[in-house]
Design goal:
Pfam families: HTH_11, WCX, WYL. The protein is of the alpha+beta class. 39% of the residues lie in helices and 23% in strands. It folds into three domains: 123 residues, Arc Repressor Mutant, subunit A, CATH 1.10.10; 79 residues, SH3 type barrels (Roll), CATH 2.30.30; 96 residues, no CATH class. Helix 2 packs across helix 3 and helix 10 packs across helix 11.
Length: 327
């Protein structure tokens, strides 16, 4: 269990009984005595009202507060907040990890036992699933601070092609499919881009007095446009539906098949093509030629790589048709 998840479980456990010894807690979570002491110290640093009672029969417990907080919550609201916060547990890094633990600890401190039981039941019935990623995003908070303060950052970024140094102006952060992304203006590419936060290797806050004007939407539309037209089988529609951009563009037919007919920029060819490769034989690309050429190049490379070991293969898993109408 990751540390953040264990700390939340520890909070829940401390809320369910008066006192626990360090040994009892360590045995419950299958960690060492030293690790449990460190977890208790982290909770205390996060503002959790822990009370340590020495001597026989003593241990650690939550200090119950008898005064209501300035903002009161109904039982349902408090439970909903805790469950909502826990939906981020699958992310290795979170921009407000310490504050989250503090808020949850304060809620646990005032919840009656029946509320704790309801939380445990909801954990079994409601599960916010996101892929677990082992990559770390240590610069989430600095990026968020830069977005709030409208600061520019000089970063080193490890893209699919190469490492590069660039200046960005962060706009906002968002989480998708287990990864954190930063939407920003990139001076290197002179456009708005979304960067994987875990691929940012270093950053420096720039102290320059003036920042570039936020690009207007029309600035992005000045790039060369390409018409993307592809046909999807019924299975292909299901496979493509999860994608946060292309999935919303599927036009479904009565037989369950579908088509995507949209406009992309030339800078989108690579990521669009890589996504289509993952659809295998469930996708047929008719336009544009740039995507078709990219797919054919990738498939030829795969064919050459595996031909010697596997003989004639079926690597050409994407049906590519270059005879579609061009408009």
């Amino acid at each position: 269990m990751k540390r953040t998840g264990r700390l939340l479980e520890l909070l829940s456990l401390l809320n369910s009984k008066k006192t626990f010894t360090v040994k009892e807690l360590a045995d419950t979570f299958s960690v060492s005595h030293r690790t449990m002491l460190r977890d208790l110290h982290l909770l205390s640093e996060s503002g959790v009202p822990l009370q340590a009672t020495p001597g026989p029969g003593g241990g650690y417990s939550l200090l119950r507060k008898h005064t209501l907080p300035p903002v009161t919550f109904t039982l349902e609201e408090a439970v909903a907040l805790i469950i909502s916060y826990e939906s981020f547990l699958h992310y290795t890094d979170k921009p407000f990890e310490k504050e989250t633990l503090s808020v949850i600890s304060k809620l646990f401190a005032i919840l009656p036992p029946e509320a704790t039981q309801k939380i445990e039941l909801l954990r079994q019935k409601v599960f916010m699933r996101n892929p677990r990623r082992v990559t770390q995003s240590p610069f989430l908070r600095p990026l968020l601070d830069a977005a709030l303060e409208q600061q520019a950052l000089h970063i080193e970024y490890d893209s699919l092609q190469r490492k590069s140094k660039r200046i960005i102006q962060p706009y906002y952060l968002y989480a998708f499919n287990g990864y954190w992304y930063c939407r920003c203006f990139c001076r290197l590419r002179q456009k708005n881009v979304s960067l994987r936060v875990d691929r940012i290797l270093s950053y420096t806050v720039l102290t320059e007095p003036s920042l570039p004007a936020v690009p207007q939407i029309d600035d992005e539309l000045e790039q060369p446009e390409l018409r993307l037209f592809m046909r999807l089988t019924a299975k292909g529609c299901k496979l493509a539906d999860w994608h946060h951009e292309l999935g919303n563009l599927i036009h479904y037919h009565e037989d369950g098949t579908g088509t995507i007919d949209t406009v992309i920029f030339t800078t989108d060819v690579e990521w669009v093509s890589r996504f289509i490769l993952g659809l295998g034989q469930e996708a047929t690309v008719e336009q544009p030629e740039q995507v078709i050429d990219y797919l054919q190049t990738e498939l030829d490379a795969l064919q050459e790589r595996y031909a010697s070991g596997y003989g004639p293969s079926n690597i050409s898993s994407v049906i590519v048709n270059g005879n579609g109408d061009r408009s």
